[in-house]
Amino acid sequence: MKPELNDEELSRYSRQILLSEIDYEGQLKLANSHAVVFGLGGLGSPASLYLAAAGIGKLTLIDFDEVDDSNLQRQIVHREANIGELKVESAKSNLAKLNRFIEIETVGKTLEEQEIEALVSSADVVLDCTDNFATRFMLNRVCFKTQKPLVSGAAIRWEGQLSTYDFRQESSPCYQCLYPNEGGEELTCSRNGVLSPVVGMVGSMQAVEAIKALLNLPTLTGKLMIIDAYSMMIRTLNLKKDPECTHCSQ
């Protein structure tokens, strides 16, 4: 645990420390926090960049894919020189150049659920930046079991959505309260397309939610934010715990 911030850190994070909701104690708490980011694509890129810049002390990055030229339109943590590298290694090298005061760990392979549970158990917040229902449901199960806050984002075409499932709160709904176990039709950017800044909007908001969860500030727990970038309309809907949910209401 870091006992205090040094002078360089005080200067770097001074604009955040000025916020009354954060202050010195909050920034020190961020410096001693551990965030796990699943997926270093369109959502995980801006999320990890802002978490690193904001001074989250330890980031664990998880992704088994490699950087492709078609990723660079929206996956802004990667560079042309990183094409062909594992995304986690590309992200780690670029994030390390952004902030030398943080620790970055990477996992560049597919993990079993038990392995993910062990990893999540050591975290303070989890960001779901993946793009498939199977992984989303698994992260929901693991975070519910370990009582870790889960910040979930999604984006496709001109649209995005965001919510936080804070399982430290007994009244929090879970991801399966929003979607049935089958999840419905699975849309992907490779098939349906996505506007580059849309994933930037959602990923940045995931970083905001993660920071608030780490500082015990109000989050989107119990709410679902829906973003329509084409009309620039944002709606926030109430999301209650489903008493018939096959997961969190058992």
Tell me the layout of helices and strands.
Blueprint: H1 7-12, H2 14-17, H3 23-31, E1 34-38, H4 44-54, E2 58-62, H5 87-98, E3 103-107, H6 113-121, E4 125-128, H7 133-146, E5 149-156, E6 159-166, H8 175-178, H9 189-192, H10 196-214, E7 223-228, E8 233-238
Parallel strand pairs: 1-2, 1-4, 2-3, 4-5
Antiparallel strand pairs: 5-6, 6-7, 7-8
Helix pairs in contact: 4-5, 4-10, 6-7
Describe this structure in words.
This protein has about 250 residues and is α/β, with parallel strands linked by helices. Helix content is about 35%, strand content about 20%. It contains 10 helices and 8 strands. The chain has helices at about 5-10, 15, 25-30, 45-55, 85-100, 115-120, 135-145, 175-180, 190, 195-215; strands at about 35-40, 60, 105, 125-130, 150-155, 160-165, 225-230, 235-240. It has an 8-stranded mixed beta sheet with strand order 3-2-1-4-5-6-7-8, sandwiched between helices. Strand 1, helix 4 and strand 2 form a beta-alpha-beta unit. Helix 4 (about 45-55) crosses helix 10 and helix 6 packs across helix 7 (about 135-145). The longest helix is centred in the C-terminal third of the chain and has 19 residues, at about 195-215. It is globular and about 50 Å long. The mean pLDDT is about 95.
